[in-house]
Amino acid sequence: MLGKRVFSVLLFLGLVALLYGVWQGLSFLLSPPGEESQKIVFEVKPGESLYSISRNLKEKGMLNDIRKFVWLARLQGKSESVKTGEYKIHAGMTPSRLLKEITEGVSVGRRVTIQEGINIYDIADILEKNGMANKGEFLILCHDQEFIHSLLGERLRSLEGYLFPETYQFTKYAGVRKIIEVMVRRFLKVYDETIPKAVNFNRHQIVTFASLIEKETGAPEERPQISSVFHNRLKKKMRLQTDPTILYGLLVSTGKMLKNIKKKHITQKNPYNTYTIHGLPPGPIANPGRESLRAVVYPDKTEYLYFVSRNDGTHYFSKTYEEHNKAVRKFQLDRSARKNKSWRDLKKNTSP
User: Domains (ranges, CATH) in the chain?
Assistant: First the structure.
């Protein structure tokens, strides 16, 4: 009899312990540690262990019990499934939902704007400052012939011109290769949507041409006019004589972008200097947007051969050299014409 009573007591205590364990487990699974208003962006770093992740979650008030969370992950077969990235989480999440977020969720995207007309060196700086890429690694890949060929089917000097300017969302750990692939794919899509099949230039020439237009004007309505000038000069076998090509050639050869051109630079020979070479430079000098690409194949019909800055972001167009010289004297040589004026004024006047 005594034996049966002891057995009954032990069985009862075992059931109590079991029920208590089940209750504690359910309580852990169903009870969030705090309120939904307690929101953070939580980072899971490359190679970080589940225990380290759990400890960080607890320290940030997103988790009550490290050990139970680790057990939960193992029980669900997710202990090796945590993904590197940044996740928007809050203290109102149950452990199950929290585990699901860091193993199946989408990492937070960081917005980055690549402006029209900037070059690959500018883009490298922007990505590095936003914590998305290492500048050196980015530029190495942008000059990797095999990588370029895999993206474009051509072995070009670099990806200059093919990184489409737009606002993107990249995760912190997307990786340099993925970022470049996304930008090039966007370029290819826009190019196919914009450029007709039957044109007199090949793709590389069109992108190069478009980059000159992009660098010469910040006024959208002028792009077809700038294009017409370049088309007219090419037909007459005149040198294009566009200043941005001098600056880019010096950047490629020296690694430094100058702000101003000196007289010696105009006659200094380099493959990009359109004051010393005929036709287009060997490649793009910047990354053009859709409208500059479009302007290459849909230029205005004009007889213009020259243009000069009005100092406010727009240009004066001329048909003859004499008329152009008058415009140069009026807008450039006369200091009063430049006083208190800037190309930045264009953005002020066109802003909503």
Answer: 29-104 (3.30.1490.480), 110-194 (no CATH), 305-352 (3.30.160)
